[in-house]
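The passage that follows is intended for readers who have already worked through the single-chain material. We present the inputs for a multi-component assembly, then the predicted structure in tokenized form, and finally a short commentary. You are encouraged to pause after the input and sketch how you expect the pieces to fit together before reading on.
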Amino acid sequence: MYALALHGGAGPRPSAWSVALERRYRDALAQALGVGHELLARGQSALDAVTATVAALEDDPLFNAGRGAVLTSAGTAELDAAVMDGASLAAGAVAVIRRARNPVKVARAVMERTTHVLLAGAGADAFAEEIGADLVPSSYFLLSERPVSEEPLPGTVGAVALDGRGCLAAATSTGGMSGQRPGRIGDSPLIGCGTYADDRCAVSTTGHGEWFIRTVQAYDIAARVRYGHSPLSAAIEAAVIQRLPTLGAEGGLIAVDAAGVICMRFNTAQMYRASVREGEEAEIGITATPMP
Amino acid sequence: MYALALHGGAGPRPSAWSVALERRYRDALAQALGVGHELLARGQSALDAVTATVAALEDDPLFNAGRGAVLTSAGTAELDAAVMDGASLAAGAVAVIRRARNPVKVARAVMERTTHVLLAGAGADAFAEEIGADLVPSSYFLLSERPVSEEPLPGTVGAVALDGRGCLAAATSTGGMSGQRPGRIGDSPLIGCGTYADDRCAVSTTGHGEWFIRTVQAYDIAARVRYGHSPLSAAIEAAVIQRLPTLGAEGGLIAVDAAGVICMRFNTAQMYRASVREGEEAEIGITATPMP
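Having made your guess, compare it with the prediction:
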């Protein structure tokens, strides 16, 4: 059994919504899901699937990650990403990087080619160059074609997967918050906050990053499962639907457990999302209620 | 009831150990403990106590934080720190900063003066300057007087406290790993990894930072207490003594719970540490067995 889920950000419905825009988002979500799905169907690892899925979302200007990244108050794109392999607890992350086309691939290189987990700023950009990562000029980000660019998207992209060998993985990538102070790091690249995977579940979050740091949200789900013996869905219900709103924390998350159960919950009006399990039809969702 | 504990790093015993050096460390630990103790005795908050205690340790060249910070492979000092208030879950942190004398004070300012939790790199240095933080030239760090500077100290400094109102707080500060790649961020400034506090316990770690990120170590302790209903001491025993060695992760941590119970455990040869509880004598420790 393999399973894959992705998100493209949670938040309010854009005011400029249209049938055509919904179609664009659905196509983009399906396309990115297909990238990871194909790898899992071929027997590749959950780690490969989440990396490739997130890289596809980074390349799409519709999402606040990679090409579609929002800008800081200084007018710069500062990108963050993380990836974690649940079987080994190996993890890699980058924060405040400015030149890599696919931050998630640089995060994976941090995991595989260094003894560190998190590299930030100029040192992370130097690392990206050193390993021959695909570098892009700042105009690559500044020319965002995101159709709702006037709105501050809280969104982020992420993916979680279970592969045929029973291994779990998670990856998350973001352009941060529109107008954020340069140097601000949100939850996405922080292991345990925005991204986490072990042998029981894999989690990727999106939403109010500062609150997801304070609640150590991704690992909080894993801990409710491990120490509280909650089923994954109950753990997520307790955290995302019951607890986070009491803190004023808006957002959502996607998760998969070792049995291939996928949960995608959010306390916002919508969360761009898609999922597929071996032998089943892919599902694409945006609003809370199933779309016709 | 108030309680305060601090650490100054866990690791092997320095090869250049001497009676005179031990005396210096003991005096330094007692002095820093006294700073926070005095605040708690006067009725100030746990947050004030951990900030002041860690700032005192940052000012002492014996420890790998602030003035005594080790250098990166590029010969630069890059400092990280975090602080968290358990009552509100408010948190602030800085990473890869180069100019602040007391990173923990800048971390506290991030918590109190911004909507963010973590600022890194040039943006964090700009923030430190903007708020009028005490800035120092790079020679302040390069002139480290640490007597065992030829050895890569894994250490870090931190403090946890319970104040008279029943509020908990934690703070951690580090110069990172000697010879680390520029831009590397360890567990210390990461909420949930090196530093965490809520209404049940406060935790500060020291040791193998990358593993403490992968295990989300500080929040793992809090989660064992909250979801696993473990007493604090049992949670720490299970994590630090039983689990971490199986991963090859060396280090230790200090913690205090809402009843004022202090736990200081490590799986290394020694951990510089000190603690005091209202109405009791202060205790200073270095090796695993009580010193005469």
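Commentary: Chain B has a mean pLDDT of 93. The first strand of chain B starts at residue 3 and ends at 11. How closely did your sketch match?
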